# Entry
Amino acid sequence: MLRGVIEGVHSGWVYKQLESAHDDIIDFKLENVGGKLIDVMRIRSIRNVHFDREWHQIKVGENFEVTLEK
# Structure
């Protein structure tokens, strides 16, 4: 199941409860780089798995297919 949550709408307690109820947390955001908006994502947590915590640029295609930019 995939759930989307917008930060800043609820109290911090609500977000902690939601995060503790799920096995993984993936963050998406827009960054302004030199006046250009880019989409980025990171894996914030996955239970029992080692992973890269860095932000990575992604590209969203016309058909909403998402690819990781290198």
About this structure: The longest strand covers residues 36-46.
